[in-house]
Amino acid sequence: MLSRWTDFLTTDGEKPSRNRDAEFEPAPNLSRADLLAAWEKGWASLFGTLASLRPENLRQMVRIAGKELSVTDAILRQFAHYAAHVGQIVLLAKHFERSHWQSLSVPRKKPGKP
């Protein structure tokens, strides 16, 4: 998120400083507090960027991994990407919680109940 939303209008969303491969490796000695701080920093970057946009920016072109997209398309692309990751998190949570899982939406009907 930091790579994508830092200098969103003026630099490619894939920053040279990003180490994509490391994102898929467990960080040694990463505490829950560190993980939550990184999570919050990423979301703050996104929301700060969105708050700074003006209507005229929405038709502007930005670059992500060398590909030009309108600001609107880039935002929609990222939101779809985040939705996929949220789905992954929910799937894992359901797996680990098993019978203790509580539905995030309309629960399934229990046998024998309308």
Summarize the helix and strand pattern as letters: HHEEH
Strand order of the largest sheet: 1-2
Oligomer: single chain
Main pleated sheet: 2 strands, antiparallel
SS elements, strand count: 2
Structural classification: mainly alpha
Taken as a percent bin, the fraction of beta residues is 5-15%
Number of domain modules: 1
What is the approximate shape?
extended
Q: Can you count the helices? A: 3
Radius of gyration, whole Å: 18 Å
Q: Distance between the terminal alpha carbons, to the nearest Å? A: 44 Å
Q: What percent of residues adopt helix (DSSP H or I)?
A: 40-55%
Q: Flag low-confidence runs.
A: none
Mean pLDDT: 92
Description:
The protein is mainly α and 114 residues long. It has one domain (2-100). Helix content is 46%, strand content 7%. The protein has three helices and two strands. The chain has helices spanning 2-5, 32-52, 71-97, and strands at residues 61-64, 67-70. The chain has a two-stranded antiparallel sheet. A hairpin with a 2-residue loop joins strand 1 (61-64) and strand 2 (67-70). The longest helix has 27 residues, at 71-97. The chain is extended and about 60 Å long. The protein starts with a helix and ends in a 17-residue tail after the last helix. The mean pLDDT is 92.
